[in-house]
Amino acid sequence: MDKPKKEPIALHRRQDNKLCLNCGFPNRPSDTRCMYCSTSLVNDQGIISWIRQTYYILRWRWQLKNKRDSLERNHSKKLIQFLGFFMVGVILSLAGAYFFYASLEENSFSNALIAVLLLLYGFFTFKSLFSSK
Q: Which of 52, 97, 111, 132 is exposed most, by the fewest CB atoms within 10 A?
């Protein structure tokens, strides 16, 4: 026999919460205002309240659609950002290595300080790039 699919259960096994049409926050059934955004939760009768609720529902759907679209496009943006930071780290590290080599050749203390600074910047760029967040 097939096992029935389990449905998600809300806290305290109650699913009678009212969702705010403005922000989507779950509220108690006895609340008249949203606890998060203070929007009225009372279902008024009339054309104006119907227009307002329809507007909130359409806006919520539009925001949800935009979030889904941004999640799909987010991978290419993250890859470009990763490659950009990686190149900055490589350039800083190579410049630091060049100045360090030049400071050893010329016995220049100022080149050594610049080299240490650039190497540290390159190190911290790589560290922030590869560290878990």
A: 132
Backbone angle region of 3, left / alpha / beta, with phi > 0 → left and psi within -120 to 50 → alpha: beta
List pLDDT tens digits, range 53-105. Answer: 788 878 878 887 887 766 666 677 788 888 999 999 999 999 999 999 999 99
Greatest C-alpha distance within the chain: 85
Long-range CB contacts (within 8 A, 24+) of 112-120: 118/92, 118/93, 119/92, 119/93, 120/96
Q: Tell me the C-alpha distance between 93 and 122, whole Å.
A: 5
Q: Compute the distance between CA of residue 21 and CA of residue 94 in angstroms, rounded to an integer.
A: 54
pTM of the model: 0.46
